[in-house]
């Protein structure tokens, strides 16, 4: 694929590496005040925390052999704790929360007291691309090994729960037989590469990023040169003008643009991220042709590996390095030390026309057929439903299904004359092609049902909130996003929602500690990117939630000017 000079061979990602002037062609900058941040590029290879220690002790990828040969045969109790709570993530496995432990105990108990002997297993779905055989396999695995669970995540993946360690090798065998994997689905690794769900088919597409995603997968995923990063590394490639991969909040994103002289290519964004210190990504101002996206990705992930901060886990994302360096220096290091060539300057993407960027509804493709996007509630589906979706796709002549970053799905390649029939068949499964704005715009993370960090319940609460709002506000048609997190982390991107709800314990009118939410208002991506404001003192109990959201939406409706979209 590379028509340009190949990237440098990945540098040794183990202690002992010191990239000096001879390796880079430029004098190595000392990191000055960051000498204590554990950056490999300035010679700091001594682990400064327990995570860095277990990664140094053994590469996370190596745990697979132990799972296959020891743990799956001897059972849960045989698992080394450093593997159980560390390296198993490199293969998409997290222990799930023991049932019945309330949110008040989350911060009090030791990790082993929260651990159930079952696992969450994340299947990575790069670009959100699935075919019928793959979806059938996911559905079968869900029903056979995961008690029917199969949640759609907001990063285009599928997550199983209730997985026994004994079953993991067989699950891998079946996934890999159809071209899927759990490799580096979690852990301090290059996670799933987001991609436009309508890549290669959308009538308004600028450029199809699929070949770049495939090339990155080939070069980077499962490659030990990139399997010990300071923390997770999130990425996206989309040539859709809908800006449909939350490019503002990834570690690196490639966004389709048309260069006035060079034509269609990608604009590069780096250093976005949410969680407790949210930061929007910044443009490097560089235009990259399709053939060079993988080179630039490799350069950016290498900078993260070599220069990323490894002392404190809560400062180890790329966004902190970017905040200290700035985009200009970041681009210079990328060009001078990693690509060994300059990048062309390029334009910024245009703002999308639509507030919704989820591809819900029926839309005409380049080839005259249609893609049909549909909404389950808060990403909750199950194996039986996924099996039926696979059968519907096959029955309607499609072999292409897609997942989205809004916990939704698409079936591609539907003949125009069969769209209505498919819409009806999906509705019979409670999968709406024309959903209410509440169903369309509400997302929820895993929450206390399975997540060890959770303080409150999220999925059932989100589904019930949708039902309440549909009943109370049947006339409300404006796009609105409601994102629900079970704890202060931001797996459901609360800072980017019109109404963001951060799970915590709150005091109710009777003075009791109950499940509730800190409210963030006015966040958005796409049209006017910005983070929602934490409304000081505004906390609602879970029981008050429908009343509160209804009040906010009614207030908006009453005061809104023509054409104004929801912005609390
Ligand atoms: Fe778990 Fe918190 Fe993430 Fe929700 S936001 S999935 S509760 S870590």
Helix content: 25-40%
Tally the helices: what do you get? Answer: 16
Strand content: 15-25%
Flag low-confidence runs. 1-32
Mean of residue pLDDT values: 91
Largest sheet: 6 strands, mixed
Shape: globular
Bound molecules: iron/sulfur cluster
- The rounded Rg comes to 23 Å
How many β-strands, per DSSP? 21
Function: Catalyzes the reduction of sulfite to sulfide, a step in the biosynthesis of sulfur-containing amino acids and cofactors.
InterPro entries: NIR_SIR_4Fe-4S, NiRdtase/SiRdtase_haem-b_fer, Nit/Sulf_reduc_fer-like_dom_sf, NO2/SO3_Rdtase_4Fe4S_dom, NO2/SO3_Rdtase_4Fe4S_sf, NO2/SO3_Rdtase_FeS/sirohaem_BS
Domain Nitrite/sulphite reductase 4Fe-4S: 186-337, 440-568
GO molecular function, one term: sulfite reductase (ferredoxin) activity
What is the element layout, followed by pairings?
Layout lengths: L20 H4 L25 H8 L5 H12 L6 H4 L8 E5 L13 H4 E9 L5 E2 L1 H14 L3 E4 L5 E6 L4 H10 L12 E6 L14 H11 L12 E6 L13 E8 L3 E8 L11 E7 L4 H15 L10 H8 L1 H13 L4 E2 L15 E4 L5 E5 L5 E3 H13 L5 E3 L5 E6 L4 H9 L9 H5 E3 L14 H14 L9 E4 L13 E9 L5 E9 L11 E9 L3 H15 L9
Parallel strand pairs: 6-7, 7-8, 17-18, 18-19
Antiparallel strand pairs: 1-2, 2-5, 3-15, 4-5, 4-14, 8-9, 9-10, 10-11, 12-13, 13-16, 15-16, 19-20, 20-21
Helix pairs in contact: 6-12, 8-9, 9-11, 15-16
Keywords: 4Fe-4S, Heme, Iron, Iron-sulfur, Metal-binding, Oxidoreductase, Thioether bond
Function: Catalyzes the reduction of sulfite to sulfide, a step in the biosynthesis of sulfur-containing amino acids and cofactors.
Pfam family, one: NIR_SIR
């Amino acid at each position: 694929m590379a028509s340009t000079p190949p990237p440098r061979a990945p540098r040794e990602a183990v202690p002992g590496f010191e990239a000096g002037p001879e390796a880079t062609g430029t004098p190595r900058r000392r990191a000055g005040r960051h000498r204590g941040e554990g950056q490999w590029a300035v010679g700091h290879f001594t682990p400064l925390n327990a995570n860095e220690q277990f990664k140094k002790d053994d590469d996370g990828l190596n745990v697979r052999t132990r799972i296959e040969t020891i743990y799956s045969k001897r059972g849960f109790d045989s698992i080394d704790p450093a593997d159980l709570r560390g390296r198993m993530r490199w293969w998409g496995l997290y222990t799930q929360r023991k049932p019945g432990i309330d949110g008040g105990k989350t911060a009090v108990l030791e990790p082993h007291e929260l651990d159930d002997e079952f696992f969450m297993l994340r299947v990575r779905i790069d670009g959100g691309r699935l075919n019928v055989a793959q979806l059938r396999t996911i559905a079968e695995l869900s029903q056979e090994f995961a008690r029917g669970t199969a949640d759609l995540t907001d990063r285009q993946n599928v997550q199983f729960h209730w997985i026994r360690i004994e079953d993991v090798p067989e699950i891998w065998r079946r996934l890999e037989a159809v071209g899927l994997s759990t490799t580096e689905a979690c852990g301090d690794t290059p996670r799933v590469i987001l991609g436009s769900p309508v890549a290669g088919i959308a009538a308004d597409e600028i450029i199809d990023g699929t070949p770049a995603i495939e090339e990155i997968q080939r070069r980077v995923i499962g490659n030990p040169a990139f399997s010990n990063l300071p923390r997770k590394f999130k990425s996206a490639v989309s040539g859709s003008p809908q800006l449909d991969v939350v490019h503002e909040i990834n570690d690196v994103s490639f966004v389709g643009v048309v260069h006035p002289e060079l034509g269609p290519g990608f604009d590069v964004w780096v250093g976005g991220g949410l969680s407790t210190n949210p930061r929007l990504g910044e443009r490097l101002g560089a235009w990259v042709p399709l053939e060079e996206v993988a080179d630039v990705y490799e350069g950016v992930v290498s900078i993260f590996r070599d220069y990323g901060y490894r002392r404190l886990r809560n400062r180890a994302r790329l966004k902190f390095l970017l905040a200290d360096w700035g985009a200009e220096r970041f681009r210079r290091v990328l060009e001078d030390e990693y690509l060994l060539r300059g990048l062309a300057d390029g334009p910024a993407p245009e703002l999308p026309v639509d507030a919704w960027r989820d591809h819900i509804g029926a839309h005409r493709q380049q080839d005259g057929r249609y893609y049909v996007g549909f909404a389950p509630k808060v990403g909750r589906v199950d194996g039986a439903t996924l099996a039926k979706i696979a059968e519907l796709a096959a029955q309607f002549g499609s072999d292409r299904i897609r997942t989205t970053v809004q916990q939704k799905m698409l079936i591609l390649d539907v003949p125009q004359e069969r769209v209505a029939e498919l819409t009806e068949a999906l509705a019979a499964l409670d999968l709406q092609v024309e959903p209410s704005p509440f169903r369309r715009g509400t997302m929820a993370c895993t929450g206390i049902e399975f997540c060890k960090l959770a303080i409150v319940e999220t999925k059932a609460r989100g589904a019930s909130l949708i039902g309440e709002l549909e009943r109370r506000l049947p006339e409300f048609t404006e796009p609105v996003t409601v994102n629900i997190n079970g704890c202060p982390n931001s797996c459901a991107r609360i800072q980017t929602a019109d109404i963001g709800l951060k799970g915590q314990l709150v005091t109710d009118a009777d003075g009791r500690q109950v499940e509730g939410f800190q409210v963030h208002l006015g966040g958005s991506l796409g049209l006017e990117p910005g983070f929602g404001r934490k409304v000081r003192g505004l906390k609602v109990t879970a029981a008050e939630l429908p009343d509160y959201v209804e009040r906010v939406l009614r207030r908006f409706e009453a005061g809104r000017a023509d054409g104004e979209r929801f912005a609390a």
